[in-house]
Amino acid sequence: PQTLLGSELAYRTFDPDWTVRHGALLGTLSLLRAWKVHERPHNISSTDRHQSRKKKKFGRWPQDILARCVCILTLDQFADFSGTACQSNDASDKTEDITSGAIVAPVREMAAQIIAILLEASPPRICDCTHSLLMQI
Questions:
Q1: Are 36 and 44 a contacting pair, CB within 8 Å?
Q2: What confidence category does residue 53 fall into, taking pLDDT thresholds of 50, 70 and 90?
Q3: Whole-model pTM?
Q4: Whose CB among 25, 53, 82, 123 lies 3.0–4.6 Å from 110's, allowing a Cys bridge?
């Protein structure tokens, strides 16, 4: 069942509707957090042993999700402009100024959170490759 769910969420990350993309990434983030808790190494004495465990655990699905999230950071265009209400410091001026400038990009934000979790669990080679790719974006 988790394989089917993971595959469906990965497929939905490129849906034309931003709300579906966002929901798929939220679900993926939840799966990864659960995976991270269950796969936490216990009593590791050396760094080499830890690195070999990382290589074993970081399979095809996490690599696919990592690649999809990098693509989302590059390609996703949805951004919502939100206004914030600010009150004037002048006591005689009782009007509120609405200033806009805050931009919310929920799909890219979820993708970035997933990348952070995956890079923490990935082997150094994948971290370096992903970092280099992100620096080019």
A1: no
A2: low
A3: 0.72
A4: 25
